[in-house]
Amino acid sequence: MSQGVAAARLRGAGARFNDRIALDGIDLTVHPGERVALLGPSGAGKSTLLRLLNGSLAPTTGTVEVLGTDLGGLSASQLRSVQRRIGTISQRLDLVDQVRVLHNVNAGRLGDWSTGRALLALTFPRADPVVVSALDRVGLGFALHERTERLSGGERQRVAIARLLVQCPELVLADEPVSSLDPSRAAEVLQLLRTASPNQTLVVSLHQPELARRHCTRIIGLQHGRIVLDRAVADVNDGHLDELYALR
User: Is 0.85 topped by the overall pTM?
Assistant: First the structure.
């Protein structure tokens, strides 16, 4: 991605679910290498915004460009090609609980493999150095051959991080990736997300403003589907955060 191309750009982007407006007229540009925290009360639109950015949800109004490509009107194969460059961690984690951890981590590379190699990896999974290193980085080297369903909630979150590490994405989108972790482990996970691949861009939704201040460069605040705060971390004070989370 060239320096002149935005990592993501939304123009008048909105999302409606039946009669409910989840996002309303979002104008936002994320530059390469930025670490952007999405903050705001539950239901503010953070998860919906991340779904627009990873192409799993089409906007009902406006446009969404990611990594230099307008996602509107793409064929399924063209969209998958862009999505291979995006690493996503959803609140659901999207892990297959009935298989070994090794299988779930290998899934991060399926988009770069031929169908034959992907089927071989699923049938005869290999504990190659890339997978082992990723699990070691998230503190789960011991769980390589464990069934994923036997892990705790926090451990399963770290499996999802390891899957992302082997993918080496240009853009990382993480939806509350540290919600069930203790403060020490949460800080470790955010550090991993910051360094998942060289020069990558991170957009992460958080409920902990202190983590956003420590690990991100920019804070986007959402209320009722609209951006009400957009500042560099150094320019965000407690008053801004109090206003963002005020009940209205």
Answer: yes
